[in-house]
Amino acid sequence: MGGDVVLGAGGTTLVDVSVQSVFAQLEPLLPQVSKPVQYVGGELNATTKDWEATCVRWCLMYPDAYEVGLPNQGVMILYEILNEQQDVLAERTYAVWPDMEALMREHDVPQFTVDAHRPVGDFDLFGVSFSTELGYTNLLTALDLAKIPLHAADRTDEHPIVVSGGHAAFNPEPISDFIDCAVLGDGEEAVLEITDIVRKWKNEGSPGGRREILLRLAETGGVYVPQLYDVEYLPDGRIQRVVPNADRVPYRVFKRTTMDLDEWPYPKQPLVPLAESVHERMSVEIFRGCTRGCRFCQAGMITRPVRERSIEGIGAMVEKGLAATGFEEVGLLSLSSADHSEIAEVTKGLADRYEGTNTGLSLPSTRVDAFNIDLANELSRNGRRSGLTFAPEGGSERLRRVINKMVSEEDLIRTVSAAFSNGWRQVKLYFMCGLPTETDDDVLQIAEMAKNVIRAGREASGRKDIRCTISIGGFVPKPHTPFQWAAQCDPDTVDSRLRKLREAVNSDRKLGRNIGMRYHDGKPSLIEGLLSRGDRRVGRVIERVWREGGRFDGWSEHFSYQRWIDAAGAELPPLGVDLDWFTTREREENEVLPWDHLDSGLDKEWLWSDWQDALDEHEQDDCRWTPCFDCGVCPAMNTDIQVGPTGRKLLPISPVGKGSPVSNPAFSGG
């Protein structure tokens, strides 16, 4: 863990020594790879600290390419919070492309950080944030390149503690062989507490070695250490129970919830990428959590309760972030940004503040029933009028009741008609295919909805150049949602329905030529389903896929469905299960699920009741504005919903120079 073992008269002690950069070995390789700039570091607002001057050292990874990983808010926030601690160092690493991986193996260059190009294997902690399960094979590549044993059981005191986080950490069982621990929920306070525990242990001389530090982390109740739990199975393959195998370890591990987001205004100094990235903007998370209750949405379920950032807090973050980065677009992020109780005041205040500058605003996620033209006009006041994006998710009214997406087609048509009459020309609609109880007809109604959007747009605008794009993804049942018991739809059925949908869209050429259709086949979704609801036995499949060349499985050009099918076919049947057992099988109410010992705050009985309501096509209201439905989160987490409205306004900042964001760092809120 970032030190040398020295034998002295008093026994064995750990002495921290400087860790050398590997850039001299790396530099000759850069001209031989694609996008070499992604490996050089030195971004605006990046931090490099003195190794010897720090006690606890973190390497943070988003297990995807630099262009995807650098804009990730979670990693960026933790990077800044950790580096604010005087005796803590945090650096970043990303998944290397296969061309770079091959050269690193050939020239014996280890997995390195982009900040100071230090070997990942020399850090105390290696934190990996998973927002999708398809990044698991990239974790194995990074571990292997870092010369960290793949299996946690084979690691010694010399190796970093491998910590997983992100939404996928709410069921880390498929990667339990490869990680030392997992943190559920918000990371801001969790990483500081983990750092404190590691600091104290190191200062004491690292008593008890690796097992002792893992025990200390586990006994907090907020860090899950898989090797300290045993899983017992029934003869039919189901789990009988998951139990601790050490005295100091709790039976359940709770998620972390950061309250009062104004106390955590991160990132204060957002990173500015050197290479092109997926998001070229400065982003501010305006609230966390969602209580809409969409039954398919894991993010909405596991991030409860709703916690809003205040209008002043948002204004201060936007001001500081623009000054620190030079970005010309501000993304107001959340699961459904227009649901902020003061979104009208936020957007108007920011639009007023930056009118006459190059600064534009965007809401990446908007619900039809939370959208209005006044809001859209504020967002496009600086002349940037892109297309509008909405997510009905289900094609039919019946299916939207099943998934609790309470949006009617009338709402959608009314909204897009108003938009088209106010100058918008295109709209994008997101749907899912393979949802529980779905029929061919439910999917075919997507075509009719798109045609009605074109008709309404032409009528409202008097123009023919109206466009509607429908984008369709395969549904994957997720842990800690009412659909965690559901059978996943098989890829052949999904693909068949999508073919019929394309035929229906093209059946009327006068309308169909104005409708674009984007979709992925159902095969990657089935593998995501295996990884999402799998247990420890799935780890063998992941490792076999990786050993046979699996990399960047979230990228269609790298994903091999056959490789996963073959690996599952080889590894699972000897264990008494198979791919269908984990994916297309419906679970019973009393089945022990692989993640039942990991507490998201949601009551399992409430989730089951909501699953029954889904099958009965019964909708559930948003508990922010109605009486509590007893989902369990607020009492279990000792939290409560934090919402406005506050009635406050953003005051203008002066002076504001034309063509630039702001020149006065002073901020005031009314």
From TrEMBL:
Residues 276-514 form the Radical SAM core domain. Pfam families: Radical_SAM, Radical_SAM_N2. Transmembrane segments: none annotated. This is TIGR03960 family B12-binding radical SAM protein. It comes from Allokutzneria multivorans. The lineage of its organism: Bacteria, Bacillati, Actinomycetota, Actinomycetes, Pseudonocardiales.
